[in-house]
Amino acid sequence: MKLILPIFIILMTLCVQLVSGIHYVTIPVLMSEQSYSNLWIGAAMASEIAGLLLLHRALHAFVRWAGLSVALLVFVISRALLCLLMIQWHGYAGWLAGIFCYGLCTGMLLVLLQTWLNMLPLTKRGLWMGLFSAALSLGVALGPLLVSFTDLQTEQRFYLSAALNAPLLLLMWIGAAQSGLDCAAPARVRFVFRHARPVLISALVGGISFYGLPNFLTLYGISSGLSESSASILMSIFMLGSVSLGMLISLLSDWLNRQLMLVICIFVSVVCGVYLSLAMYSSQIATQILLYCWGGSMGGIYSIGLSLIGERFHPSQQLPANLSYNIMDSCGGIAGLLLIGLMMDQIGSEGLPLVIEFVGCSFLIYLCWELVTSERPLR
Question: Which helix (DSSP H) or strand (DSSP E) does residue 36 occupy?
């Protein structure tokens, strides 16, 4: 029974992200066909994560009042309805409203699932957090593959994403009855930041990559001469790297120093970003290898951060701690989407790796400074 509940949580996470994976390759391309610039596309996709950032206190209060089971039910049903409604919305205001509300439900679902998993008495936390991070990336990676292999029309993709919420409801009903999640603690973002500053900043950097790359990597590939189906595979390779290599890195962090693992992951991500532009025009195999390693390093950063959150905070503080982690992730996502969209409009497709390289180098310098001056190590 100890293994069943975390497995259910990971399967629910996979279902949540599978729907997002479909939207990541459908909505940006559709908006591009409607003549919206990359900056406007980035702003629209940023609204997906703005809801959690703006309304986190109200959402936290709702979860405390309704409880885990009711909150999960409300967010899943609302999410399915929004997938159907977005079929009818083609103006920019409609896209903003639909993506904002969809992201609100998705963000809180992931926060609740992440908190639920972190509160369980796990013996190998790095392994389970690696599986959770792998489920996040695998769902996003499988979404484009599902769209590519089934050759669905745009409207059919939205119907499919709505239908994929049905297994999520079933898994939620099975697992939520066994939950003992304590939602009583108030949201205390400043308290969490004070006690886990490097971890939350790593979430900020991870958000820039995990939101910016999936939303623009398809357009990056198309602008580099690839077809839409070939360009969508690039995102899948990045996410598959996060699934497999990222999980291995998270597993190794159970035995190795987590702060050293963070430094290595950031260094690898910077190297991959530097050489991606060259590989894109010279070798498809080299491009795929770099994206695979890049995804693995970013997946490792995310799962190591989750492990540190689970270890550092008391069970009663897990919900606000995980909410704070996701808020920083959302801030990074908004910054990444806007910066990448702006830079791609200004200097072309190379604006994407340029933003990621700059952020990675800055965080690497900060993390080294933190390790030298901090009186309390990450582990």
Answer: none
Taking the C-alpha atoms of residue 68 and residue 177, their distance in angstroms, rounded to an integer, is: 9
Q: Which two tokens stand for residue 27?
A: 């909505």
- For the chain, the structural domain boundaries read 4-373
Which of 29-33, 200-204, 256-260 shows the highest mean pLDDT? 200-204
- CATH fold of 4-373, please? Growth Hormone; Chain: A; (1.20.1250)
pLDDT higher at 293 or 91: 293
pTM above 0.90, yes or no: no
Q: How many CB atoms lie within 10 A of CB 297?
A: 27
Spatial contact of 203 and 332, defined as CB atoms under 8 Å apart: yes
The identity of residue 105, as a single letter, is: C
- Which tokens hold the place of 118? 């972190």
Helices 4-33, 38-54: axis angle to 10 degrees equals 140
Reference 373, options 197, 200, 189; nearest CA is 197
Residue reference for tokens 């003992």: 180
Could you tell me if 48 and 169 are in contact, meaning their C-beta atoms sit under 8 angstroms apart? Answer: no
Tokens of 185: 């603690």
